[in-house]
Amino acid sequence: MVDIVKSAMGRNAFFLLALAAILFSFTVDAGAHGVTAGDKGYIQESSGTMLIPFIYLGAKHMVTGYDHLLFLFGVIFFLYRLKDVSIYVTLFAVGHSVTLLTGVLMDLSVNAYIIDAIIGFSIVYKALDNMGAYKSWFGFQPSTKIATLVFGLFHGFGLATKILEYKISPEGLIANLFAFNVGVELGQLIALGLILIIMGFWRRSDSFSRHAYSANVALMAGGFIFVGYQMTGFFIS
User: Fold this and answer.
1) pLDDT on residue 217
2) pLDDT tens track for 37-47
3) Best-predicted range by mean pLDDT among 127-136, 152-161, 166-175, 191-200?
4) 206: domain range?
5) How many angstroms separate the CA atoms of 202 and 14, rounded?
């Protein structure tokens, strides 16, 4: 049974992942940091310390945040050791947490379209990195760890910008923000676990080596579509 599953994953993983990259880019709510109407109302009406609800909201954001998931997919694409995965995910989490918390607490915001376009570019950047483009073009390999940290900062800033639009009550603000961030990191672990399971099956098949480059081309295309969509929104808004 396991062999059958591995075989099926080997044949179909590339097509599923490539399709997901494109479909996520055309999601109806093109703002990757969008909050559903129900959650928006809850955030606006909440007052006082509410740890569990905000942990839930943070986890929900990460699990449904396709920009984060596509970037993380690119980051771990060629990471085989759990130690390496942990290092890069920690760098991303640190960057994400710093700008999420400081952005909201210091009331720092940037145009949401610009931030989301940069986040889309982070997906493009990582896909090109996985394809060996920088070594080929410039003759050297930029630090992937620094890039992961920097783009983590932008990802967190994007969410902070969106949260500021909803005017969270100052009562219990700090505690609720920390709870939200804890939820984001828990959601990241859940999503990452699922990605690693899928990647684990795919890497055991012959199709991984054949389709790895093409998968990153699809990932890059999804990132470019996302950038184009956000920049269009910026110029016509």
Assistant:
1) 93
2) 566 666 666 67
3) 127-136
4) 2-236
5) 8
